Amino acid sequence: MIAPTTLKNTLKEYFGYDTFRPLQEEIIHSIFSGKDNLVIMPTGGGKSICFQLPAILLDGLTIVISPLIALMKDQVDGLTTNGIAAAYLNSSQTESEQQEIYSKIDAGEIKLLYTAPESLSYLENTFNSKTISLIAIDEAHCISSWGHDFRPAYTNLGYLKKRFPTIPMIALTATADKATREDIANQLNIPHAKQHIASFDRKNLKLEVRPANDRVKQIISFIDDRPNESGIIYCLSRKATETVAEKLQGANINAIAYHAGIAHEKRSKIQEDFINDKCQVICATIAFGMGIDKSNVRWVIHYNLPKNIEGYYQEIGRAGRDGLPSNTLLFHSYGDVIQLKKFAQSSGNVEVQLAKLDRMKEYADALSCRRKILLSYFGELISEDCGNCDVCNNPPQFFDGTIIAQKALSAVARLNGQEPIGTVIDVLRGAQNNAILDKNYQTLKTYGIAKDISWLDWKQYITQLINLGYLEIAFHENNKLKLTEFAKDVLFNSKKVDLANLVEATEVLEAQIPKKPKAKKNSLFERLRQLRYKIAQDEDVPAYQIFNDATLREMEAERPMSDEEFIRISGVGRVKMMNYGHDFIKEIISFSKEKKRKRKVDTTKKTYELYQQGLSIEEIAQERKLAQTTIFSHISKLYAEGKDIDMHQFIDKHDLEAIRKAKVALENPDGLKPYFEHFQEAISYATIRVGLTILKKEES
Ligand code: ADP
Ligand code: MG
Q1: Atom of ligand 1 nearest to the CA of 47
Q2: Contact call for residues 174 and 314 (beta carbons, < 8 A)
Q3: Is 510 a residue whose pLDDT tops 50?
Q4: Three-state secondary structure call for residue 307
Q5: Would the CB of 549 count as within 6 Å of ligand 1?
Q6: Which ligand minimizes its atom distance to the CA of 78?
Q7: In the 8-state DSSP scheme, what is residue 94?
Q8: Which is nearest to 541 in space by CA: 549, 529, 532?
Q9: How far is residue 639's CA from residue 635's CA, in Å, rounded to a whole number?
Q10: pTM score of the predicted model
């Protein structure tokens, strides 16, 4: 048993945090009791600390298995800035670099060693000579072919438990489904591992879905509202990543495409630029993101519908790891559904893939709280609506849509279920294109019966009718729209159909996003962000590893100006305090001083305005709820600056002469007090101030 206070102190000292996130403490205790552990936590949930903190306290070396070289470097950089001795070992290093690490291990100078499963054999000697305290398998779903990132080399990891039966092991993943979970435990030879399953609710992620109309335009306006905020746009194809990136560049947005077809070196460079805040937006295929823990990704957009909810959730999970509010936006189109069905049909496991796609589509079409749907997919039930998704923020209003439904269904009936959505809408709207005229559809009874509804609105109503089960798309017959057996009730028995009111995407946008004040150029946050960027450049680490956005926000709110105040900020540990405290405090102090100076200028200006309006000193003081002496000091200042003020009206001629004499007699006295005493309190402070101001002006 380890004392809870020891854990808390270590958390603050090394990571700068005051409290554990859910399950972290429990998992750490379980490690100290020598158990094996399987941790299921969503992306951004805080898995790393579960093994990094024990590694610091336990005697010996913790081995961390991690799938990607980029991921290792990132984590080791992060640990190093926190003053934790860590290193990584992989095939990208030269022999002498590796040798150096071995010697450090021998000297006991390293607490955590990251390595890829392929490189395990290098370690055999180390294993012999060193105490291993803990073995951590990060991204453990890579071991399972059930998971979505299977890596053959991971299957060798079963060896570790056989080789070190008594060393506690911890496997971590964000993949929730049960089959994968059991597969992981079995393959790692830890079938009895204690399972820790965290809530998948990431409350700080706002969920939003919009129809895929004018996507690029919508994206540009979305980004314009968020200058300086990092984001990822996921696209289905390599081609799309490139066209979207180009269009954004055309709108002066710092965006770039990323996909597996780009040369390895260039890809690393793009990733690095993104991590280092040099590139704001990445348009990527799903290949992007697993390797990076960038904590200040503020938004994720899905340009296309993802193929399943697991993938979608993992991708949006890359936003807001620091816990600050972050946006997610999914564009939904039937074109994508059709495309994805094709992919699914040509994959193994067709039925499973199609079922997963269906769930994804249901989510995108939802007319009730989206988070409830997401979490129920992961087996988690919440009783309250979330209040942080587009549906909750803008609940649909229903109306009697029976006539609209009847029109659509009868058009489909007249077309004998032989045409896709687009043609059905053209018929309803009486379009005169070749597709219609060639087939003589203009003679149908339903031709042009609903011109008053726009093309895009029709598309959405038909989508609703599909979701209500009156229509279906025959994906295997060129996506023809067909009636279902329930359609009869509407067509012949006047069954009432409730449809949801359509809201323009732009209206939704206006209503939902409480117009955030645009990031202010001169805010303290912006100043601290600049400072962070500069330090990150100097030290050659990602900016968010100096301090994350949440920490900067807290500094902005609290304005710590001393070491004691600074260390209280969440995210400030001992080593960061030592290394960066001085610079940040200095910036905060100088910002506050400037603000004060500016406030002074502003308040003097206000007094002058009232003076110009003809108010007396007394009246100004009353109006501004300030003391008269304060107003006098403003007036004196304005007068000294050369403003048109009749200073003499505030002072008796004799008093002024008395002050003039006193000034000579007192020989450059400091402040007002010596005068006040010299006159034995017969002339007030305010009058003395006025007199001195006049004399000074005369001298200059
Ligand atoms: P995961 O590996 O589960 O995706 P990470 O371990 O990378 O998540 O953690 C995500 C973010 O949460 C990191 O920026 C980390 O510093 C932060 N974090 C972790 N634990 C805490 C905590 N107890 N308090 C505040 N922030 C935390
Ligand atoms: Mg992680």
Answers
A1: 3
A2: yes
A3: no
A4: coil
A5: no
A6: 1
A7: -
A8: 532
A9: 6
A10: 0.76
What is the Cα–Cα distance from 675 to 684, expressed in whole angstroms? 10
d(CA 651, CA 648): 5
| Residue indicated by tokens 């074109």 | 335
- SS3 assignment, position 599: helix
| Contact call for residues 254 and 279 (beta carbons, < 8 A) | yes
Q: How far apart are CA 548 and CA 451, in angstroms?
A: 53
Pairing of strands 326-332, 209-211: parallel
Residue 353 Cβ inside 6 Å of ligand 1? The answer reads: no
**Residue 547, exposed/middle/buried by CB under 10 A (0-12, 13-18, 19+)?**
buried
- Does 322 contact ligand 1 (Cβ within 6 A)? yes
Closest ligand 1 atom to 293 CA: 7
- Mutate which of 26, 49, 201, 315 to test ligand 1's pocket (most atoms within 8 Å of Cβ)? 49
Q: At what angle do helices 574-612 and 524-539 cross, to 10 degrees?
A: 150
Give the Å distance between the CA of 546 and the centre of ligand 1: 14
At residue 86, φ and ψ (nearest 5 deg) are: -140, 155
**Taking Cα atoms as reference points, which of 184, 146, 198 lies closest to residue 36?**
184
Q: Which amino acid is at 235?
A: C
Instruction: Check residue 69 and give its pLDDT.
Output: 77
> Given the structure tokens 């095939």, which residue do they identify?
91
**CA distances from residue 478 to 92, 269, 482 in whole angstroms, order as listed:** 49, 42, 12
Query: If you ran DSSP here, which 8-state letter would residue 107 be given?
Result: T
Residue 686: how many CA atoms within 13 Å on its side-chain side? 14
Q: Is the distance from CB of 588 to CB of 560 less than 8 angstroms?
A: yes
For residues 124-147, give the mean pLDDT: 84
Distance CA(39)–CA(360), nearest Å, equals: 25
Residue with tokens 């002066």: 252
pLDDT one-digit tens code per residue, 323-345: 999 999 999 998 899 899 988 88
Q: Is 80 exceeded by the pLDDT of residue 476?
A: no
Hey, what are 37's tokens? Answer: 């552990």
Residue with tokens 């300030």, as numbered in its chain: 626
The length of the chain is 700
Report the SS3 class of residue 492: helix
> Which ligand is closest to the CA of 324, given by its number?
1
Nearest CA to ligand 1 atom 5: 46
139 lines ligand 1 (CB under 6 A): no
The angle subtended at Cα 579 by Cα 576 and Cα 581, nearest 5°, is: 75
Q: Is 48 in the pocket of ligand 1 (CB under 6 A)?
A: yes
pLDDT at position 130 over 90: no
Residue 259 Cα, ligand 2 centroid: separation in angstroms? Answer: 22
Query: 392 C-alpha to center of ligand 2: Å?
Result: 30
Least distant ligand from the CA of 544: 1
Q: Which long-range contacts (CB under 8 A, 24 or more apart) does 187-191 make?
A: 187/143, 187/144, 187/155, 187/157, 187/158, 188/137, 188/140, 188/143, 188/157, 188/158, 188/160, 188/161, 189/158, 189/160, 189/161, 189/162, 190/36, 190/38, 190/161
Q: Distance between CA atoms of 420 and 474, rounded to whole angstroms? A: 9
* Residue 260 tokens, joined: 């597996």
- Mind giving me the DSSP string for 557-608? HH---SHHHHHTSTT--HHHHHHHHHHHHHHHHHHHHHHHHHHHHHHHHHHH
Q: Which atom of ligand 1 is nearest to the CA of 48?
A: 6
Element (H, E) at 438: helix 434-438
**Ligand 1 contact, 17 CB (< 6 A):** yes
What does residue 679 show for φ and ψ, rounded to 5 degrees? -85, 10
Contact 44 CB / ligand 1 (< 6 Å): yes
- Going by the DSSP 8-state scheme, the letter that residue 389 receives in this structure is B
Ligand nearest to the CA of 140: 2
Both tokens of residue 567? 């260390």
pLDDT at 74: 84
pLDDT digits (tens, 9 = 90+) for 190-239: 999 999 999 999 999 999 999 998 999 999 999 999 988 999 999 999 99
SS3 396: coil
SS3 120: helix
**Dist. CA 321 → ligand 1 center (Å):** 7
Token pair 């990822």 is found at 232
Atom number, ligand 1, closest to the C-alpha of residue 78: 16
